[in-house]
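Here is the promised in-class demo. Please do not try to memorize the tokens; focus on the logic of going from shape to residues.
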């Protein structure tokens, strides 16, 4: 992990602390540990860590049927606000790259249709789901009540040798190819971790 990466993450976490701690979001999805062979892996890249205040800049969603990749949804998103330099350094996504990208209003119905009634797999799911459900307060959209499986929780049960259960730590331990802080790259890595954990659990 580079010094630049560490500085970027430290800045983002400090920024997230500025959010009013008195504001608590109602959890609108159902957490599950059930094993499924059909699922959507979801990941967002964002302008920061505060759902409802920061905005989505990249969507990655990958569909698996019988544990086989069958479809991909990947797009940059114009957040209609400035992307901080530190986020560009972390994700590689610049303000220039999203200038002509669709807004989240233009892509959210496509994402909802892509997910359908599949359960969602996400790493540190509260982050991505927080951003997803925060859209109900900012645009005219109703987000379904999804079933969500968090690979952080799965990994804590199955993979105990690692010092932590961050996505980059797990992919290094499992020797999984990982394009970190890219929505599609994180989806593919999360899917590999999910499949490892569910195989180990059988």
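The designed amino acids, position by position:
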């Amino acid at each position: 992990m580079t010094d630049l990466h560490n500085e970027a993450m430290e800045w983002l976490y400090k920024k997230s602390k500025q959010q009013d701690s008195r504001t608590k979001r109602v959890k609108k999805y159902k957490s599950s540990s059930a094993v499924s062979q059909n699922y959507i892996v979801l990941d967002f890249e964002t302008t920061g860590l505060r759902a409802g205040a920061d905005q989505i800049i990249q969507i990655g969603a990958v569909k698996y049927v019988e544990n086989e990749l069958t479809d991909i949804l990947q797009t940059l998103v114009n957040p209609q606000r400035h992307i901080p330099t530190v986020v560009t350094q972390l994700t590689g996504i610049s303000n220039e790259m999203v200038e002509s990208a669709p807004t989240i209003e233009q892509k959210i119905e496509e994402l909802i249709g892509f997910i359908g009634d599949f359960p969602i797999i996400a790493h540190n799911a509260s982050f991505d789901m927080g951003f997803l459900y925060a859209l109900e307060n900012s645009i005219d959209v109703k987000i379904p009540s999804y079933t969500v499986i968090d690979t952080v929780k799965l990994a804590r049960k199955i993979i105990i040798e690692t010092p932590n259960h961050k996505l980059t730590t797990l992919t290094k331990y499992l020797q999984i190819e990982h394009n970190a802080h890219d929505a599609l790259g994180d989806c593919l890595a999360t899917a590999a971790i999910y499949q490892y954990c569910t195989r180990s659990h059988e």
